[in-house]
Design goal:
Blueprint lengths: L21 E3 L9 H5 L5 E6 L4 E7 L8 H5 L5 E3 L14 E10 L6 E5 H10 L7 H8 L3 H22 L1
Antiparallel strand pairs: 1-4, 2-3, 3-5, 5-6
GO biological process, one term: aerobic respiration
Pfam family, one: Fer4_7
Enzyme class: oxidoreductase
């Protein structure tokens, strides 16, 4: 009769400098995709759903090479490497972590923009108040790039016409 012993036989403690499985803290993730761009193993994906208005940051631990690039580039400290090294599972879906964030809905055209509400809130926190009036900034950040571009072109045309009339 064969007996299978439970693996591991003893609890293994990883050394302090060990790069383990990354974890995303959904409370801190703004959905910027910096981690996705930095990941050489394509363990992170950014999926935008413009019909329903959300972005998903998907982490597949099974593809991760523990290089820590995601942790290094995250502007909010939302992704951290743990000291956990056991990634074995019976169901591969257990190795996938998904963070879902709302995309900005344009106040002008109603379409969803290609950035999240949390990205806008982060930008509002870091832009110096002396650079642009707060009301003007608030008005611009909640519209999509296309509407912002049209607005900029229209204001440039108006300004050039006013200059012609005055000049």
């Amino acid at each position: 009769m064969a007996v299978t012993l439970r693996y591991p036989f003893v609890e293994i403690e990883a050394p302090p400098e060990y790069r383990g499985i990354p974890k995303i803290d959904p409370a801190f993730c703004i959905g910027c995709g910096a981690c996705v761009n930095a990941c050489p193993a394509d363990a992170l994906l950014r999926i935008d759903n413009y019909e329903e208005g959300f972005r998903e940051i998907v982490l597949d631990v099974g593809r991760c090479i523990r290089c820590a690039r995601c942790e290094e580039v995250c502007p909010n400290g939302a992704i951290k490497l743990t000291r956990i090294f056991e990634a074995a599972t019976l169901d591969r879906r257990d190795q996938v972590e998904v963070v879902r964030l709302k995309l900005v809905k344009c106040k002008k055209c109603g379409k969803f923009a290609d950035y999240t509400e949390r990205q806008v809130l982060k930008a509002l926190q870091i832009v110096p108040k002396q650079v642009i009036e707060e009301d003007a900034l608030n008005e611009k950040v909640w519209i999509c790039r296309d509407c912002r571009r049209k607005e900029t072109i229209d204001s440039t045309i108006r300004a050039s016409k006013e200059k012609e009339v005055v000049g």
